[in-house]
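Case study.
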Amino acid sequence: MASETTRVVVLGTGQMGSGVMRMVLAKRDLELVGAFGRRADRAGLDIADAIGLSSPLGLLLDGDLATLLERTRPHVAVQATCSTLVDAEGEIATCVEHEVPVVSIAEELAWPWAASESWAARMDALAAAHGVGIIGTGVNPGFVLDLLVVALTAVCEDVEAITATRVNDLAPYGPTVVRSQGVGLSPEAFQAGLADGSVVGHIGFPQSIAMLAHALDWPIERVEETREPIISAVERSTPFVTVHPGQVAGCLHTATGYCNGAPVITLRHPQQIHPESEGIATGDSIELAGTPPVRVTTSPEIPGGIATVALAVNVIPRLLTARPGLRTMLDLPPAAALPREGIFRG
Amino acid sequence: MASETTRVVVLGTGQMGSGVMRMVLAKRDLELVGAFGRRADRAGLDIADAIGLSSPLGLLLDGDLATLLERTRPHVAVQATCSTLVDAEGEIATCVEHEVPVVSIAEELAWPWAASESWAARMDALAAAHGVGIIGTGVNPGFVLDLLVVALTAVCEDVEAITATRVNDLAPYGPTVVRSQGVGLSPEAFQAGLADGSVVGHIGFPQSIAMLAHALDWPIERVEETREPIISAVERSTPFVTVHPGQVAGCLHTATGYCNGAPVITLRHPQQIHPESEGIATGDSIELAGTPPVRVTTSPEIPGGIATVALAVNVIPRLLTARPGLRTMLDLPPAAALPREGIFRG
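After joint prediction, the assembly is written out as follows.
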């Protein structure tokens, strides 16, 4: 079917923002009309340089969001600049006040009520007043340990408990990520890092559990999170870190949601470098205890960065026809991979 | 959150209709208010007897659908009486004319345009005129080889081809099902059965491929279906059939969708009794060739009967808030398992 072109601006020129821009450029029905970067010194750079393309695009990176929106009049903005509601709010409000709907990959946007009910109420009202939608998405939180789980429960007459595990490999990541999981620390330094906040584990479990609880109408009374060091028995290394036997290869982060004192949702995310060095394969697994029991696995795991970029772009048409306000992935019909330029046409 | 009770009538008292009724009875926010059976001689039977419950429900099976709808004033009807659009139409039209939305598990309803564009247009107009929705659902077609595949494509920047396989075991099924797959026939009789229509294979591939093609906006130019006998190397038997070595244990049904001469969608559904007797495990698998590649498996397969019942019931709240007209699972936000009576409350 023929579709009108959707004009997209992208906020953020890091790895995620660059990925979103490259994907928008590749899609038949999307047009990249501009990009905003927070670093004022990069304003005026051709977007191609900012995202690592060899030929110039003739589109310049903008350092002022309102000006960009007024000049380009986009149909939608994709935000890839931050992780928290507080950090995301200013840019989202600017877009909404220009009547531009927003897709955000900020982790806390996957289920905004988990971090702040008042933020969610305020932004819902703002978006509704301007007649546009706001949605958060991403692979985790946002898909593997929550939305996909919800979708699978539809085949169950009854679900009694949910266990989902995501095993990934941090070896491709840079120093910021590996540090945040305590890679290369001694067990003692790992515990100190947890205490001082330098070792954080996964960001997103409260969002995933809240989404599951809402979808299933389960009255979760409390959520417990634990972060344990994954002690390596062998030497493992990346360009940024070497882990000796007895040191920490990563962080096993677990979140458990309880109803009536019983653990009914258990989400596990061991993040480490080179899990295969101790015979552990990467992958996602979802187990629903219920009628019928359901067990789904992906092998390897659905990869983090690229899947988050894809979700942010693929959800665009669904957001544009959604009811205005603060939406979640539970409100929208399933997003699907958008057709690329020249799909199956030689 | 507190919800009002949704009043449900069920059409059909076979295995699927009975399952739907038992599930409605178990759900906190659903109330079974009546049931319709096509067999006039069963009218007046307590529904408990019709569906195999030990204590009477005080609800009598109805042989006249219009009377049932007028007396019970349900919020929704679930149809489990038939497989085809033609066979489903009269009952659906009666419900819609009484302003009762309909969930149907008729296989052809999963994507009605595949079997008849004119039926779909007519029923869409009728439903829209009466302000109610009609939707088809089920595990296959309707979920494992289509809706779940679509949902997974959302994590892909690009999808080049889809391969999905569903391996199940027909041993629990009765004589009608095993006959329709050619179980127990000689290879020659299997071919004759294909020719005379007594061996049919799977019902639903045109619906699944059309749903995938629509979701991905892929211009499928033709669909090829093949049905091959699965010749057993060993003896396999059920209470209804014995298969000797060299005879047919089931039917491998494959459907392939082509774009520009290339096979881009391949769906396979080998249905046989006791696949484990030759070392084959049951399960569903979905492979997306693309960026990133995605490989998802279920082990064992999501079971057919119970999952179809569950989907039909779990989609009810989603249908009741959908836009009126003929809808599909692609139009609705993800259905989730509905809470049972007394969930997590002692």
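Observations recorded in class. Chain B has a mean pLDDT of 95. Chain B has two domains: 6-138+306-327, 147-301. We will return to this complex in the next lecture.
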